[in-house]
From TrEMBL:
It comes from Cyclopterus lumpus. CDD domains: EFh, NOX_Duox_like_FAD_NADP. Pfam families: EF-hand_5, FAD_binding_8, Ferric_reduct, NAD_binding_6. It is a multi-pass membrane protein. This is NADPH oxidase 5. Keywords: Calcium, FAD, Flavoprotein, Membrane, Metal-binding, NADP, Oxidoreductase, Transmembrane, Transmembrane helix. It comes from the Eukaryota. It is found in: Membrane. InterPro entries: EF-hand-dom_pair, EF_Hand_1_Ca_BS, EF_hand_dom, FAD-bd_8, FAD-bd_FR_type, Fe3_Rdtase_TM_dom, Fe_red_NAD-bd_6, FNR_nucleotide-bd. Residues 416-550 form the FAD-binding FR-type domain. Residues 39-74, 141-176 form the EF-hand domain. The chain crosses the membrane at residues 216-234, 254-273, 293-314, 334-359, 380-398. One of its GO terms (cellular component) is NADPH oxidase complex. One of its GO terms (biological process) is defense response.
Length: 737
């Protein structure tokens, strides 16, 4: 951080102090925690003791600013001494003002008391670091971390760590030493402020236009066609007056949009197009976004269309035989080609469309009420029926897209109902993830990253929900779905399988179940209570393609999953594992990885980034990642084909002083045990959030070909990653369905 940022940070500290301090202008320990947002008691007490130079059990603003001035303007040694004293909890502090060559006075902290760190003190520090980072490890692992850091730092085997030994140990970690000299804001962090945007707006940059060229060209053509339809319809109805012209112009645009919105959701048709050259011209990967844009356009057109007709009816009522309410709510004026019902159907259409848009809002879909969105969206059948009655020409626009829609529905219904599909195995995983194993139909073919709609009558008879297939296409016997409990249907699914005995057995399968129950109990005892076999009827509609189908045609693919957003990449990584099969020589036991390439396989490098909030979220997918690491254990001559990067956002970042000791211990123990203490993988879990600029800069310098970034997760993070991709001219794809 710059000096200006440090100055702003000191102003923030001063304001926090003045807002909390009483009439005596001093704060105690509890007020100190509130002022500087320090949660963990150990660190709060140590900081408080260091800042309380007169030992009065309270801190004045002068004491606080003098201590913080040391952290901002002090030397590297001064800051190291401060860190040492935080760890040396049995020591006491003497602070005095020393002269300096600069105009200000810096506090020079001298060591007093024990002057060394013993194993118990180090263990206390690491335990507090773990709590601050929301990391849960067994006591034995905490002892291992303490021992690893202590043995590495205690150079003379004296049984304690001196200041010089701690300094020498920190020099083995260049990142830590660099962070010590950056800024005081890395020691006690205020709430993060939004960074002020500088430079040209993102939408005006050349990189944005290049990376979104297909979408922008499509929107330009869509806008041009809409304007053309609007003007043409207006000119054809000039005798009717201004408001009538506007209403007819919007009506013609509605004819087009109310059928085009259907085309954007022909999933099977779009999946077929993804395998053709059309995918390089049209933005097929953004069909959901375009569907939403057209939906909002329909809402706007209907509002303007209705408003224009109302004003037109006002003019007619002033000079005609009918009053305004008769024009709007009756068939007496005879407006419309089906017994004068245009006004009535128009009012109903306006209400239904507004309700559908409202129930499609993000806050409805993401707040655990997917069923509201699902059932309200089925009203499209009523909208099309009413449009047929409302407008005499709508059928001309509807006939061809309607036939495609009907064909797709018939094919989907036939595919989903043919053959008996059953959920044959269930695993209840951490973070309330339900792993379904479904017997794979003989003629069911899909590609990595595809998704299906699943219906389980036992859970909900008429509901279909989309989920990514998490198994590889090479697994011929079964399909995997990993479903996280986030809404009503997914919670019912998870709770259903938590029951002691399955309730899914029909009479035809009861006898077989009784014969195999003893065997299943033995299996359950082996795998645990959260693993069971079953025979639950289900139906599947799909598969449907996603942007991830382009991964194997990329040269350098970056897969980014946030939380449960890893599921499409589970299929892809497993497919990679099958394609990069490990071969063994029977005579000399030499092993190597043979890259089995097909006509589409152009991959030279894959970077897999998984971001999770907490430690438990990693547990359900670790077994697969462990297998992948085993296959990639020996580096290839040109470098490792697959690199994994794990991030845990609840853990304190390496920039945070409170995390320095823990991160050093985790690094040392990982090198010693050759596995990460948090996940058990060889890949070290990084604390905090990725610094996307640095991450993408490194990938850009590898020169493995054009970089394509594939993301599945929250929309907020997608915007951040997409903005960085535009800076580096990376292609960005977001999973949408």
């Amino acid at each position: 951080m710059s000096l200006d940022e440090d100055a702003r940070w000191l102003d923030w500290v001063t304001n926090q102090f003045e807002s909390i301090a009483g009439d005596d202008q001093e704060i105690d320990l509890e007020e100190f925690k509130t002022a500087l947002k320090v949660k963990e008691s150990f660190f709060a007490e140590r900081f408080f003791a260091l800042f309380d130079s007169d030992g009065s059990s309270s801190i004045s603003l002068d004491e606080l600013l003098k201590a913080l001035d040391l952290l901002i303007h002090g030397s590297e040694t001064d800051k190291l001494k401060f860190l040492f004293q935080v760890y040396d909890s049995s020591g006491c502090i003497e602070v005095y003002a020393s002269s300096s060559q600069t105009d200000h006075k810096a506090g020079d902290a001298l060591l007093a008391g024990s002057g060394s760190i013993d194993p118990d003190e180090l263990r206390t520090v690491l335990k507090s670091c773990l709590r601050e980072s929301a990391i849960s490890l067994p006591e034995e692992k905490l002892d291992d971390l303490t021992l690893a850091l202590f043995e590495s730092a205690d150079k003379d085997n004296s049984g304690s760590i001196t200041f010089e030994e701690l300094k020498a140990e920190l020099e083995n970690f260049p990142e830590v030493m660099e962070n010590l000299t950056i800024s005081a804001a890395n020691w006690l962090k205020p709430p993060q402020e939004e960074q002020q945007k500088q430079g040209a707006p993102r939408y005006l940059t050349r990189a944005y236009w290049l990376n979104n060229s297909r979408k922008l060209l499509f929107l330009v053509l869509y806008t041009f066609l809409s304007v053309l339809l609007f003007i043409t319809a207006m000119m054809q109805h000039r005798p009717g007056g201004g408001w009538f012209m506007v209403a007819k112009g919007c009506g013609q645009c509605l004819n087009f949009n109310c059928t085009f919105i259907m085309v954007l959701m022909l999933r099977r048709f779009l999946t077929w197009l993804r395998a053709t050259w059309v995918v390089r011209v049209l933005p097929l990967d953004q069909n959901i976004l375009l569907h939403q844009i057209v939906g909002y356009a329909i809402l706007c057109y209907t509002l303007v269309h209705t408003t224009a007709h109302i004003f037109n009816f006002v003019q007619l009522s002033q000079s005609g035989d009918y009053r305004l309410w008769e024009y709007l709510l009756t068939t007496r004026p005879g407006i419309g080609w089906v017994k004068g019902t245009a006004s009535l159907t128009g009012v109903v259409l306006q209400l239904v469309i507004c309700l559908m848009v409202l129930c499609s809002s993000t806050f409805v879909r993401r707040s655990g009420h997917f069923e509201v969105f699902y059932w309200s969206h089925l009203s499209y059948m009523w909208i099309w029926s009413l449009l047929m009655v409302h407008c005499a020409n709508f059928w001309k626009w509807f006939v061809f897209p309607g036939l495609l829609f009907l064909l797709e529905k018939i094919v989907g219904l036939a595919v989903s109902r043919m053959g008996g599909l059953y959920v044959v195995e269930v695993n209840l995983l951490p973070s309330k993830v339900t792993h379904l194993v479904i017997k794979r139909p003989q003629f069911f073919h899909f590609k990595p990253g595809d998704y299906v709609y699943i219906n389980i009558p036992t859970i909900a008879k008429y509901e279909w929900h989309p989920f990514t297939i998490s198994s590889a296409p090479e697994q011929s016997e079964s399909l995997w779905l990993h479903i996280r409990s986030m809404g009503q249907w997914t919670n019912r699914l998870y709770e259903y399988f938590r029951q002691p005995e399955s309730r899914d057995l029909n009479p035809k399968r009861l006898e077989a179940s009784l014969r195999t129950r003893r065997q299943r109990r033995k299996v359950s005892a082996k795998f645990g209570e959260n693993h069971r076999f079953c025979n639950i009827k289900c139906y599947i509609d799909g598969p449907y393609g996603t942007p991830t189908r382009q991964i194997f045609t990329s040269e350098h693919a970056v897969l980014i999953g946030a939380g449960i957003g890893i599921t499409p990449f589970a299929s892809i990584l497993q497919s990679i594992m099958y394609r990069m099969r490990k071969q063994n020589c029977p005579s000399c036991n030499y092993s190597w990885c043979e890259n089995i390439k097909d006509s589409e396989m152009k991959l030279r490098k894959v970077d897999f980034i998984w971001i999770n909030r907490d430690q438990k979220s990693f547990e359900w997918f670790v077994s697969l990642l462990t297998k992948l690491e085993m296959d990639q254990a020996d580096e290839e001559p040109e470098g490792r084909f697959l690199e994994m990067h794990m991030y845990m956002t609840s853990a304190l970042s390496k920039n945070d002083m409170k995390a320095i000791g823990l991160q050093m211990a985790l690094d040392l123990l990982a090198k010693k045990e050759k596995k990460d203490s948090i996940t058990g993988l060889r890949t070290r879990t990084q604390p905090g959030r990725p610094e996307w600029g640095k991450v993408f800069q490194k990938m850009s310098e590898e020169n493995k070909g054009k970089v394509h970034v594939f993301y599945c997760g929250s929309t907020a993070l997608a915007k951040v990653i997409k903005a960085q991709c535009e800076v580096f001219s990376f292609n960005f794809y977001k999973e949408n369905f």
